[in-house]
Amino acid sequence: MTTAFVAEAAAIHPQIGPEGANVRINDFNLWYGQKQALFDIALDIQRGLVTALIGPSGCGKSTLIRCLNRMNDLIDGIRIEGSMTLDGADIYGAGVDVIALRKRMGMVFQKPNPFPMSIYENVVYPLRVDGVRDRATLDATAERALKGAALWEEAKDRLKESALGLSGGQQQRLCIARAIASDPEVLLMDEPCSALDPIATSRIEELIDGLKGHYTIVIVTHNMQQAARVSDNTAFMYLGRLIEYGQTEAIFTTPKLERTQSYITGRFG
Amino acid sequence: MSASIEALETTATVRPRARVTALSALGEPFQWLLAGALALGMTMIVGFLLLILWNGATALWPKPIHVVTLADGTRIAGEPTRSEEFRPGVERLQVLDEAMRRRIRADGGYAWRTLYRTGNFDFYNDDFRWVTDYEVGALEAPLDLYFVERLEWGPFVGRIAGVDAAGEKLAIGDSRAVAAHRDARRRWQTIREIEQGEIGHVNARIERERLALRRVALDETEASPAYAQAKAKADARIAELQGEYRRLAEEAQRLKAEDERYKATLAEIGGKEKTVRLSEIVRYYPANAVGWIDRLGIYLSRWGEFLVDAPREANTEGGVWPAIFGTFAMTLLMVIVVAPFGVVTALYLREYAKQGRMVAIVRISVNNLAGVPSIVYGVFGLGFFAYTFGATIDQLFYPERLPSPTFGTGGLLWSSLTLALLTVPVVIVATEEALAAVPRSMREGSLACGASKWQTIKYIVLPRALPGIMTGLILAMARGAGEVAPLMLVGVVKLAPELPIDGVFPYLHLERSFMHLGFHIYDVGFQSRNSEAGKPMVFVTTLLLIAMIAGMNAAAIVIRNRLKRRFAGSQF
To answer: Where do the DSSP E strands lie in B233-366?
Structure first.
């Protein structure tokens, strides 16, 4: 059965070609110890668009997105094959400056994780670790990032207060502000709304819409409607394999594969 | 309404409550067992603290003096200390009359006896005396009996026959006698300052000149012109200092001669008399005539003396200030050493080291270190720090002082290092746990911002782990401050009037041996000539040690909670 859908999947993609690709993933395999988690992933992520990764739990979406900025380096016993490139440069090449790479790829996590500092210090943290001390630069960055994350109006009067006093939705927008403060090219979002209520979720979605065009956004989501609403392209993954990848509209209205159809309509997963 | 209540009642009565659950399945017996164990532990702790608190707080309270006239006509004056029931032996019963024997027999062979603090060690070679109640002829509390605390020979109990203030005979109640005593005490204080302070200072400077000269002799040779030059200079300086010494000694001599002219005559109840210098009397009061206010004043003045004075009379009298200072300085130094050492070790083990067999072995070793008897650390500290490390320091930096050791023997520094070694496992384990408790999401958030590993540790992990690290330090401090056994080997002594910090260059004397409250308790309680006399002191010192450790811990807890509040409200 497994081999059947692998063959199917191989026949379908990639439908989105390399032109305009910001991030390219070529035949990427990943093992946690003995267990293989990603199988031959090949994906071109378009510059300036929102790409959604969907699929049932445990299908490898988060693993894949965390490979992009090498967050998986922290985990022992991981082995990879294949390559990923950012603007043609190999992410896993020898001598890659991981810190510089992560500055080019901001990341927002599942649960809001503001640092126990003031709102201001949270936003300028990426600059602080770069050793920026110039007050004017920091202030300008904080304002730009908070405006970009649609948090400026709520936070401008309480920049010196602890970030832990913000609501969950505000905290997540603060994390987005922090991720865009270092002016990355790519924004990785690992289920950014899963811990939020519907109103906060819709604000984040609006925000993603606003950020589109400025950043290449990769978003992992469990929420079909969310993927349909915010993304331009959608990749459906299942059991560590990329099943179908195409324009969101096409995936949601006329999926090429039966399995994609079943997942999207909620028959499994 | 009433009908429904009735219906309820009927159902309640008609349905008998069958016991369906076995007792063992309820789990309640076990709950009682646990609660009982907790209650027992709490009772022991509270009881212990109350015992220390009561005995410590009342030890310095001035007690009345009773005069007991025994059946044979002997009169004994003293503070009743405690009473107890005892069983007199056969040979003691034989000498009693029949009525008394019958009374003791009626009590089941028991009689009561009371311990009197009689003082007057110089007359009777005894501080305390047991008096059995069948010996007692009469009991009275005369108002003219004084309790006199002296610099030597312990307390005196009896009458003050008169005061001789430079030839002028005064009664003790006279206000001029009170003034004479105050002046005498002040004079004595001045003499002590000259002898111990200024003369000590001059001696230290003479010694330094001598050592500097010897240093030149070691560096060059005694035949070199540099040595001759230095010697001429040193001799001149020493001659000058000796002149100063003579001047100070003369001054002290003059004051002493003056002091000799003020005397008091003490008459004890048995009729013996003794004349002492007025300055020898620390404090006197008519024990049965003082009111509550005066008693409170005496009580507070005794506490004051206890807290800020140096000990005297083989530590059983006077104060414990050097011990307080020594304990505090040692604990503080220990924390300063152990904090970075433990935290850095834990950071490496948890954050950087590759988790494998090697790290597991190191961890097990660290945990085992916490179980090594503390005296072993003392032996190690003496052998390694003092005799090896310290001796090398002496050879390199203090050759002129050899063969008398500077760092090559026990001292404050080596004691602190030994205790730091003893407590470092506690800090390592607590820090590792605190580091492990920092949420992964925090680290990932920081790393995703492009922070390096060290930046993540510095800005995110360490601040978050700080309250936990503080908890480890508090535990280490509590353990270190109360430790005595290893200190006896590496620097604590019975009497060290010179504090580790004073006005003599280089001000901080880490090589000096010091006093410690824990050792003080052992010394006073078990090494003094009369353990009964030291008993109140043991309780007061214990109370002080417990209070001091509690105080240091409370301070650390306040700091920790303040840190914690900064990170409060964090959701994950």
So the answer is: 262-267, 273-277, 281-286, 311-312, 317-318
